[in-house]
Amino acid sequence: MTEILEYLTSLHNKNLSYSSVNTAKSMLSSLLSLLHRKDIGKDPLIRHFMKGIFNLKPALPRYVNTWDVQVVIEYLNSLKSSELNLKLLSVKLATLLALATGQRCQTLWAINVKDIELCDSYMKIRIFQLLKQSKPNNHLEEMYFEPFRKNSNICVMKCMKLYIEKTQNKRKEGHSERLFIITQKPFTEATKSTIARWIKLALKLSGIDTSVFSTHSTRSAATSAAVTKIPIDTIIRTAGWTKDSTFRRFYKRPVVSTSVFSHSILDTL
Fold first, then answer.
1. Would you give the distance in Å from CA 248 to the centre of its chain?
2. Parallel, antiparallel or unpaired: strands 143-145 and 116-118
3. pTM of the shown model
4. For residue range 65-74, what is the model confidence (pLDDT) as tens digits?
5. Alpha carbon distance 124, 151 (integer Å)
6. Three-state helix/strand/coil letters over 32-99
7. Whether the predicted pLDDT of 30 surpasses 70
8. C-alpha distances in Å from residue 120, one per residue of 10, 145, 146, 177
């Protein structure tokens, strides 16, 4: 037991979080239970040690609340899509997609133009790449949109169509099949971090405190706003979670001050 405590202490001394140390403890517990039929997780010394680690570095949620999506939607609505340069159009589309789907930047980065089916009455986006939430027999469903006729300036479909038209020649020049490309030569695909910076810029320009809320907070803000308007099953399916406990534990936060899903987010004006 002494060796195990020394090992866990060394992890703590490397400034690892409680969650990381606890994961290592669980791995050792599983291994030793198979070899020696001993569950170290129940040992009093280990339990006291882990409690001490938690008190020093508590594994608390990053956010106790989230921002109001209406603030960001109002800012995006102030941007007239047809008048924007490529940088701001990229910022607007990336942020609209993040909010209207509840997806990570990884998902937005994985979108290929050839996998977008866009017509007058609907738009479908399919992802044929492994994502963080991808598991055997479980992958993100296709993203489905309908025209947001109440306000076409924040319609995801309209913004998407304009973006594809504006980047068509540049995309050929940069030989990129990804939806999002960088805004200057050689117009290669935008990285996940670039897309994240675009969304963070939109949050900052909207007045969201980006020193507190990261780009990933769009996932929490969007799904927390949607839960008051649509069934939880729709949110879980749209965001790509397998069970609602993930949403309730890590993403559902009180708000400060699918087509059904996307409209529930956009319809805040």
1. 15
2. unpaired
3. 0.72
4. 788 899 999 9
5. 20
6. HHHHHCCCHHHCHHHHHHHHHHHHHCCCCCCCCCECCHHHHHHHHHHCCHHHCCHHHHHHHHHHHHHH
7. yes
8. 60, 11, 9, 22
